[in-house]
Amino acid sequence: MPRPLPQLDELNRAFWTGGSAGRLMIMRCQSCAAYIHPPRPVCRTCLSEDVSPEAVSGTGVIDTFTINHQSWYPGLEAPYVIARVALDDAPGVILTSNIVNAPVEAVEFGDKVKVTFEQQDHIFIPLFEKIAD
Ligand SMILES: [Zn+2]
After folding, report:
1. How far is the CA of 89 from the centre of ligand 1 (A)?
2. How does 36-57 read in b/e, with b if 16+ C-beta sit within 10 Å?
3. Are 127 and 114 in contact (CB under 8 A)?
């Protein structure tokens, strides 16, 4: 589905293009190992400027979600799920995204999910789908 696309800059480029290699890239402080999202030039934990993107596993858990029934722009199909996904191996990082490839009524709090990417132009949007368990 068509989406408004982000403006790429030096800080967020890895996040929005890592999907080209199938990788979810999260900014990480090289001094204290904290993850930083959205990407920033300075670690908010230790104030180090030694930050760089690293690949994470791309798995997580649905922290909370809402079902949107409004089509906010042409081509956006409703209903769809907007979820906050807590990443398994990036403590403190929660991505707001969509849950795809499942009926909206099948989505539950605490569901395990993994990242999948939707390419539009040169952007790879990280979306999530449920992991069968
Ligand atoms: Zn730090």
Report:
1. 16
2. bbebeeebeeeeeeebebbebe
3. no
Strands 24-29 and 59-68, by their bridges, are unpaired
Digit-coded pLDDT (tens) for 75-113: 778 899 999 999 999 999 999 999 999 999 999 999 999
Contact 25, 15 (CB under 8 A): yes
Global confidence as pTM: 0.92
Q: How far is the CA of 14 from the centre of ligand 1 (A)?
A: 19
Is residue 112 helix, strand or coil?
strand
Going from the Cα of 84 to the center of ligand 1, the distance in angstroms, rounded, reads 24
Tens digit of each residue's pLDDT (9 = 90 or more) over 17-30: 999 999 999 999 99
